[in-house]
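Sample pair:
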Amino acid sequence: MILVSKKGVFITFEGGEGSGKSTQSRLLANRLVLDGFDVVLTREPGGTDGAERIRDLVLTGSADKWGALTEALLYLAARSDHWERVIKPAIDAGKVVISDRFHDSSIIYQGHVKGVPTDFLDFVYKIITGGVVPDRTYLIVTDPQIGLQRSINNHNNKETRFEQMGVEFHRLVLNNFLKLAKQNDRFAVIDGSRSISSIQNDILMDFGQIFVEIV
């Protein structure tokens, strides 16, 4: 398999808590490595030492730990470090970058749902990235009630701040993600209610159709 384009490829995964996006981003990365791709698998917030520290701040503690604007600024600070140190260098080097969450999460969670002006979020994002957007975004759609239960039942998960915000909050998140996906053809909406292997097959098929040719 080879990339049709010689430039790097930037893939993001989005979805609610417990949707399966982290699993699917890891599975895609593993498969592409086996197929000979140079892959960087990363996450937001996170991906660098500094951004991982911010991750601990925003994903742990009580639901009302931060106001919406403060929360948004913390995410943007993490994204700036992540972009500068990890994502942009990897794209420039021709690698496949796969990120578990990116700017779309800020637009939905802090913007549409929590009320931070999306124009402001986009303005800062353009300063950080120069306006670069992902080549493809996989939105994994799972019933929020099921997703929250999955996440809460994960005994290794200490990052439960957003889970505390309740199912109605997460229904708003999902509805706004679906609206955003309808407005942008870089999204592929994936039914997350099926088996892990079925979801993975759909993602691999889509990736192959867009980015890869068999030689």
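The two ends are 6 Å apart (CA to CA).
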